[in-house]
Design goal:
disordered N terminus, alpha/beta, 363 residues, six-stranded parallel beta sheet
Length: 363
């Protein structure tokens, strides 16, 4: 009888080797487990488990693994760190929740073919970065086939995307806080009124500019916005910043919305102060997003703070919401996600997200 049991165990092990990894693509490397608290002991049962479990004991675990829903994430990939942070948030959370996960990242097209491919691959639930009408329509088509959809980051109408829930940060929420911090800091520096420069690529982030203007009108009418589109090169923008700061002592803040703009306006300020001698401008410089450059500027004390739009956290929380929905819970159709204003003391968490994302994606 003992020989029969050993033969059965060998057959089961061989089958697992052949078919155990066929449910989806390889997951990212696992996150190391946190060490147990000092003095903690592992829990063991009173009886040692048999090294050769009976077949009927192994069957429930196999059935549970087969029943786990495959989740997919359809997302545009422009190669940027921030979009990869969103992908990382999805993959890391799928690993934590033990979901088989598939990433459908696309660099061309409208994403509708990726949604179709996800359905063909057997994905039973989807996250869709529905930032275009075409992708929202594809998401809705998937939901009409019975596949639940959650939209992270993009503030689309849930009905338009067929989504059970949409998770996004509200511009008015984080812009009101950004304006409060900038203006109160300017006041503490002796600037009770003045000009706040918006440094951006021409026309970019208009929704943020509008939200900032509304917050100023409501709470700090003594401050006005000055739109300053970036020039062709960083050097030209730095020279522009220097000349503006020399000519406008009323400057009290810079809202740097485009990549490199925070660096250019900080360098322009330093160059201007060398010529001003005893005069100081000292505007409050605030950047957008936790890029490597902006994190470095904040950690080095060269700019005051940055707005951390929730690329990673929206994707992570979206999968948690999807997990709740799949478990039968009622979820809210619209969920606001915080976009905090972070300073030097808050950087460690975001620096870790950036470092881990770069490692996972080989950036």
């Amino acid at each position: 009888m003992k020989h029969h049991v050993r033969a059965l165990a060998f057959c089961l092990a061989f089958c697992l080797m052949l078919f155990g990894c066929s449910a989806g693509p390889a997951a990212p490397p696992p996150t190391p487990q946190e060490p147990m608290e000092e003095g903690a002991l592992p829990v063991r049962s009173e009886e040692e488990p048999s090294p050769f479990p009976e077949e009927e004991e192994a069957a429930p675990a196999e059935e549970e693994e087969e029943a786990k829903t495959v989740v997919g994430f359809v997302v545009p990939d422009d190669g940027s760190l921030l979009m990869r942070c969103a992908m990382h948030g999805f993959l890391r959370t799928a690993e934590s929740l033990s979901y088989p996960a598939r990433l459908y990242a696309f660099s061309s097209g409208d994403g509708s073919s990726e949604v179709e491919q996800a359905l063909a691959d057997g994905c039973g639930a989807l996250l869709v970065w529905a930032d275009t009408p075409a992708l929202a329509a594809a998401a809705k088509a998937a939901s009409e086939q019975g596949v639940p959809v959650v939209v992270p980051f993009i503030g689309v109408d849930p009905t338009a995307a067929g989504a059970v829930s949409v998770l996004a940060a509200e511009e008015m929420d984080y812009c009101s806080e950004a304006v409060r911090i900038m203006c109160e800091t300017a006041i503490s520096r002796g600037n009770t009124q003045g000009v706040i420069v918006v440094a951006r690529e021409a026309g970019a982030h208009q929704e943020i500019v509008d939200a900032v203007q509304n917050a100023l009108n409501t709470d700090y009418p003594g401050y006005t916005l000055q739109d300053m589109p970036l020039l062709a090169t960083v050097e030209e923008t730095t020279a522009q910043a220097k000349e503006y700061e020399l000519a406008h002592p009323e400057i009290c803040g810079v809202l740097a919305l485009s990549p490199t703009s925070a660096t250019a306006w900080y360098d322009g300020e330093i160059q201007a102060e060398k010529e001003l001698e005893d005069e100081k401008r000292n505007p409050v410089i605030m950047a957008l997003d936790y890029t490597e450059e902006n994190i470095s500027l904040v950690s080095g004390g060269r700019i005051y703070c940055l707005i951390a739009r929730p690329y990673y956290h929206c994707a992570a929380q979206a999968l948690i919401v999807l997990d709740s929905y799949l478990g039968g819970a009622t979820v809210q159709p619209n969920i606001r996600v915080n976009a905090p204003i972070i300073r030097n003391k808050d950087l460690e968490k975001y620096a870790s997200i950036v470092d881990e994302t770069k490692e996972w994606f080989g950036m």
